[in-house]
């Protein structure tokens, strides 16, 4: 059998001497499959005639990257599964095309179809079976691929139709670069018409067209830059990147900060870095919100911090150089340390707090036992059933308050429960069974290092705790007791929420200040559990989330286990920011579109998916590579 290497020594003249019709046919077939067209033909007398070469490229300059084709159909339907929209991509443009890229296909009357690439495929130009040894060996010995042998087809998903509203002419200072005479405001509507066959498509490289097509607002809170496949989308504008912002005014509904935000990401995904950059925007000097009495007030940010990282926002980032700072200023991004940053440190037993990694002011506080009268579950731990909780709320705490007053301490409460005469009296009267009494007593013990410590009560520090334009950080890293940490975080957050939702608040400072309530490791506090305490917490935070828009209260939750956050709270989240997550259950729980869901496990640090239906289409972003404040420990 002839070795395949003989193909490299093939001699056309020698083969022609055999005069076989079959061999001649095979020779012409082989010639048709080569990269270069044949330019000579053998005659019967052995001589050859040269043919004049014909140019195969059309004259003129190409515009765009390809054209819509109808070989597989050209159809726009209400049901996306019935839509068929494909484009042939020319050879020179194929290397730059990516799944997720945005394209524009114009209609003859000036409107434009804004679409996204959802699939890419090579198809044969000429029908042949290339799954053969000969084709594979030939490919292994060649220097490259002749793109002209193949079709390169992109499958497109229509996103919106872009059109100019002539009734609303552009202002003279419009940033799009077009004059007011060139048309009205660019708007979008649902896809309701099919483009023409052979319509030339081009990559979307106009900032206004992309933002309009994706329903992205022009102004608001900066999150990152639009990207596709981990690469920033580039335009012909300056700067060439496209900034993504969250709506932050009342012109088109409520600011999204008061419709709540969730940041989900695994360890090392950059979620704390990203959270700091977002919170820094809410603390910008110019950021204000109107209140019911007509005042405009800067928001206060209260951040619960289990890893002791957010107090660093007091300090400038030494790695943020002047060139990067100028870029931030051009894009209107706030940066630099927040001078009005205070670490409110909970006093818990003998635990000490070390703060050598930041220069923020520190204030110690304690949780007074008097707060338990409004929130009995704070002292219930997580083990009381409904019957035991009822005994605590309806009998024991009211009787204690009548005997010791509102200022009664935790130590006095435990002494009160140690009274055997009280136990016997309540059992004989049928109000509290002795077994129930004992169960309550066991579960309320163990909080001696949490309540009424040697520090000022948080209820006396409200004016300093909530400051317009100020950042309050509550570090809990120094507390080794998980139950104590939960009690402190839930006590302080409940104080803020209760005052925000109250029609007759005790502390007007809380009620009259826009508030962003940040909670890192939120899954530890808002989990789906069967205990009475968990149920009360979920009910409180769900109500806060529902009324946040009206009361200027925004939840800012950060977690690496989003699947553990209770559904009642999760359903109130409007903006979900997802960084790298490796756990399949966690990815499924964030409820982002499937085309972006598949990217999450492969995203690099700082890459994120933003799903905010009231702000834009679901998009992929890249956050800033440098933290806007100090971040990380030396």
Automatic annotation (TrEMBL):
Region described as Disordered: 1-64, 166-197
Superkingdom of the organism of origin: Archaea
InterPro entries: HerA_central (IPR002789), P-loop_NTPase (IPR027417), T4SS_component (IPR051162)
Domain Helicase HerA central: 255-475
Residue spans of biased composition, Basic and acidic residues class: 166-176, 184-195
Compositional bias per record (Low complexity), positions renumbered to this chain: 19-50
Stretches with biased composition (Acidic residues): 1-18
Stored PANTHER family: SLR6007 PROTEIN (PTHR30121:SF6), UNCHARACTERIZED PROTEIN YJGR-RELATED (PTHR30121)
Protein name, per record: ATPase-like protein
Biological classification of the source: Archaea, Methanobacteriati, Methanobacteriota, Stenosarchaea group, Halobacteria
């Amino acid at each position: 059998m002839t070795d395949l290497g003989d193909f490299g020594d093939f001699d056309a003249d020698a083969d022609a001497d055999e005069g076989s019709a079959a061999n001649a046919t095979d020779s012409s077939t082989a010639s048709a499959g080569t990269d270069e067209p044949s330019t000579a033909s053998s005659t019967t007398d052995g001589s050859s005639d040269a043919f004049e070469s014909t140019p195969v490229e059309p004259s003129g300059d190409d515009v765009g990257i390809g054209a819509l084709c109808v070989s597989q159909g050209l159809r726009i339907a209400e049901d996306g599964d019935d839509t068929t929209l494909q484009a042939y991509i020319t050879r020179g443009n194929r290397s730059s095309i990516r799944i997720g890229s945005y394209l524009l296909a114009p209609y003859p009357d000036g409107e434009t179809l804004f679409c996204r690439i959802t699939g890419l495929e090579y198809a044969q130009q000429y029908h042949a079976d290339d799954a053969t040894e000969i084709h594979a060996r030939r490919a292994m010995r060649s220097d490259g691929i002749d793109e002209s042998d193949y079709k390169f087809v992109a499958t497109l998903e229509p996103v919106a139709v872009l059109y100019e509203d002539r009734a609303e002419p552009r202002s003279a200072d419009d940033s799009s670069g077009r004059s007011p005479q060139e048309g009205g405001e660019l708007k979008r509507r649902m896809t309701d018409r099919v483009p023409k066959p052979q319509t030339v498509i081009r990559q979307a490289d106009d900032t206004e067209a992309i933002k309009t097509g994706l329903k992205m607002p022009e102004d608001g809170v900066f999150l990152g830059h639009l990207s596709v496949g981990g690469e920033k989308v580039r335009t012909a504008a300056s700067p060439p990147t496209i900034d993504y912002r969250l709506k932050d005014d009342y012109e088109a509904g409520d600011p999204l900060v008061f419709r709540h935000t969730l940041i989900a990401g695994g360890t090392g995904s950059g979620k704390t870095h990203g959270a700091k950059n977002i919170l820094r925007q809410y603390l910008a000097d110019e950021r204000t919100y109107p209140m019911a009495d007509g005042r405009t007030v800067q928001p206060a940010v209260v951040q619960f911090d289990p890893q002791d990282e957010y107090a660093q926002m007091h300090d400038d980032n030494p790695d943020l150089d002047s060139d990067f700072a100028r870029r931030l200023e051009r894009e209107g991004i706030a940066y630099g340390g927040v001078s009005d940053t205070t670490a409110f440190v909970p006093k818990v037993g003998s635990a000490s707090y070390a703060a050598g990694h930041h220069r923020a002011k520190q204030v110690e506080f304690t949780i007074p036992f008097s707060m338990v009268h409004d929130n009995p579950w704070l002292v219930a731990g997580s083990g009381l059933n409904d019957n035991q909780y009822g005994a605590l709320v309806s009998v024991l705490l009211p009787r204690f308050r009548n005997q010791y007053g509102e200022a009664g301490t935790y130590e006095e409460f435990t002494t009160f429960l140690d009274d055997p005469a009280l136990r016997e009296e309540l059992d004989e009267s049928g109000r509290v069974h002795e077994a129930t009494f004992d169960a309550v007593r066991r579960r309320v013990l163990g909080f001696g290092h949490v309540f009424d410590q040697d520090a000022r009560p948080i209820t006396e520090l409200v004016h300093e705790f909530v400051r317009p334009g100020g950042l309050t950080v509550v570090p809990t890293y120094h507390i080794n007791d998980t139950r104590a940490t939960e009690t402190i975080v839930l006590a302080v957050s409940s104080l803020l929420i209760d005052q925000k939702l109250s029609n007759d608040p005790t502390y007007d400072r809380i009620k009259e200040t826009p508030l962003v309530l940040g909670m890192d490791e939120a899954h530890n506090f808002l989990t789906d559990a069967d205990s009475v305490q968990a149920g009360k917490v979920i009910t409180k935070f769900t109500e806060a989330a529902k009324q946040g828009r009206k009361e200027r209260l925004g939840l800012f939750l950060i977690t690496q286990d989003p699947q553990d956050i209770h559904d009642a709270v999760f359903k109130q989240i409007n903006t979900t920011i997802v960084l790298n997550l490796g756990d399949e259950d966690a990815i499924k729980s964030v409820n982002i579109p499937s085309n972006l869901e598949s990217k999450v496990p492969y995203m690099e640090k700082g890459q994120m998916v933003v799903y905010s239906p009231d702000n834009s289409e679901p998009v992929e972003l890249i956050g800033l590579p440098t933290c806007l404040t100090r971040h990380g420990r030396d």
